[in-house]
Amino acid sequence: MINLDEQHLVSLERGFHIPPKPELLSQIAEEMQKSDASLDKVANLISRDISLSALLLKTINSPVFGLQRTISDIRQAAMFLGLDQLNRLVTLALLKQNFKGNACISLERFWDESVEVANACVLLGNRYKSLMPVDELYSLGLFHNVGIAAMALKFRDYVEVLKQANLAKELAITDLEQARYQCDHAVIGYFISVSWHLPKPLCHVILNHHNTHFLEQSNDEQQRMAYAILKCAESAVDYARHQQYSSEWFKIKEQCLSELGIVDQDFADMVEDYVDNAMAS
Fold first, then answer.
1. In angstroms, rounded to a whole number, what is the distance separating the alpha carbons of residues 50 and 65?
2. For the whole prediction, is pTM greater than 0.85?
3. Does domain 102-281 have CATH number 1.10.3210.10?
């Protein structure tokens, strides 16, 4: 397991900006936790931020959602999407706002892939009755690689590490990052997730999501299932994008499927469903 105290010092020494959780997300969460949560109140909270509202409306009216008519205000968006989906879009938009700038990778493509993993996590959570709410699984997928965005913004040569990771199949990307920068994206992602108040089990999975021995080391049933779902989701997205699986997946595949109580054919069917849905959208 990772020694967080030492890694914490390293991350601070490297001067990473760890943004705090936006107050808007806390306000939305507080309202949504009420038994009589008000759609109007949530819409009003979001509408106060004009630039965020404009970005959300642009996203909702894009071809991805395939609407027959234009959504013109946040209340309409909330009625159409529901509070859960709207909250997911707000979280994504605020993450993008906090991690923007002159990065050495395409951040737009990075966030697209993060959303794909998040959606695959939800698909798996619904299919295999996860111990975690699907909204938490969505957050896990969205945040699991957020440290990559932070490192791509800080280090101009970081893209070379990503290329090396794709070529050096037997080396974990976190090992390559540690060798060059004395920190890695899983650790940075952990601190960002803690700062944004994600549940502790999710933060711990994010910290260990490249640890191929995690299922052997963890005794926490909730974390084990979340890890297995995340790795299955990553693999489904890998296959949809590249028609192949990562070498890391083959090291943990049997354990992940066992954790979910499924076999190869179940996973193959899930990947096929995911690919079909991805192509349809």
1. 21
2. yes
3. yes
* C-alpha to C-alpha distance for 87 and 206, rounded to whole angstroms: 21
Helices (H), the chain: 4-13, 23-32, 39-47, 50-60, 74-81, 83-98, 107-127, 134-143, 146-154, 158-167, 173-181, 185-195, 200-207, 214-217, 221-242, 247-260, 264-280
Residue 135 and residue 193: Cα distance in Å, rounded? 15
List the domain boundaries for the chain.
Answer: 21-98, 102-281
CA–centroid distance for 64 within its chain: 19
The amino acid occupying position 103 is A
Cβ neighbours for 55, distance < 8 A, ≥ 6 positions apart: 93
Helix 200-207 vs helix 221-242: crossing angle, to nearest 10: 50
Q: What is the pLDDT along the chain (281 residues), one digit of tens a residue?
A: 555 655 565 555 557 778 899 999 999 999 999 988 899 999 999 999 999 999 899 888 887 777 778 899 999 999 988 889 899 999 999 999 999 999 999 999 999 999 999 999 999 998 887 678 889 999 999 999 999 999 999 999 999 999 999 888 788 999 999 999 988 999 999 999 999 999 999 999 999 999 999 999 999 999 999 999 999 999 999 999 888 888 899 999 999 999 999 999 999 998 988 887 776 65
